[in-house]
Amino acid sequence: MASERDEDGDGGARTPRDPMDRATGTDPATGADDPADGADATARAAAAADAAGPRTGESVRIDSWIWAVRLIKTRSLGASACRGGHVRVNGERVKPAHAVRVGDEVRLRHEGRERVVVVKRLIRKRVGAPVAVQCYVDNSPPPPPREAVAPAGVRDRGTGRPTKRDRRDLERLRALESQGRRASGR
Questions:
Q1: Block means of pLDDT (10 residues each) for the chain, length 186 residues?
Q2: CA 111, CA 108: separation in Å to the nearest integer?
Q3: Using an 8 Å Cβ cutoff, are 60 and 122 in contact?
Q4: What is the pLDDT of residue 105?
Q5: CB of 60 within 8 A of CB of 79?
Q6: 3-class SS at 172?
Q7: How far separated are the first and last CA of the chain, in Å rounded?
Q8: Which of 62, 67, 63, 42 lies closest to 131 in space, CA to CA?
Q9: Do 108 and 66 contact (CB within 8 A), yes or no?
Q10: Closest listed residue to residue 100, CA positions, set 52, 66, 71
């Protein structure tokens, strides 16, 4: 029972305009790979960034931008980082609603690390990581190397509950370790 508008009799099923399967990059009829898939990836990434960008004359909030380029996990974390003074644009602390422009230097302290980025492109919507990287120039210092030593106070598995003497020794080690961190500025 096809309706009047369903002229081909397929029950109103929609067919994609592009015969290539978007998920796999293959033609569903022949199973052939898309020949321009690798070369076209950067063009698709640029198009996605353009689509996520503001329209002419619109500005982008700093909390929204740092979330969109994946420097922070959630927009609310970005807003609270701005309120806490952890975000600076061109050397000045900013509020979450501060408008960011191309060429601005954004400094963000997050999770014990400082990120320094220069804005290349404005976007409002969160995009994939390959696209997000194209929206800024990363001038951040390299992260500090992870220490290869085992953390103080780790007991071997199966040794049982620590005695009172063991516990006091562990607490003494942890206190010395935390004083060493404070003295070195970590």
A1: 49 49 49 54 71 73 94 94 95 94 93 91 90 92 70 74 89 77 60
A2: 10
A3: yes
A4: 95
A5: no
A6: helix
A7: 73
A8: 42
A9: yes
A10: 66
Which three-class secondary structure state does DSSP give residue 135? Answer: coil
Tokens of 147: 């220490």
Mapped onto helix, strand or coil, the DSSP state of residue 118 is strand
- Report the SS3 class of residue 114: strand
For 171, the token pair is: 């607490």
Q: Which two tokens stand for residue 67?
A: 């979330």
- What type of residue is 161? R
* Tokens of residue 150, six digits: 């085992």
Measured distance CA(122)–CA(89) in Å, rounded: 14
Task: Sort 64 into a burial class: Cβ within 10 Å, 0-12 / 13-18 / 19+.
Answer: buried
Q: What's residue 9's pLDDT?
A: 52
HSE, side-chain direction, 13 A CA sphere, residue 65: 31
3-state class (DSSP) for residue 160: coil
3 state DSSP class of 105: strand
Q: Is the pTM of this model over 0.90?
A: no
Q: Tokens for 25, please give them.
A: 């990059």
Q: What is the pLDDT of residue 32?
A: 47
Q: How far is CA 104 from the centre of its chain?
A: 19
Strands 99-100 and 92-93, bridge-based pairing: unpaired
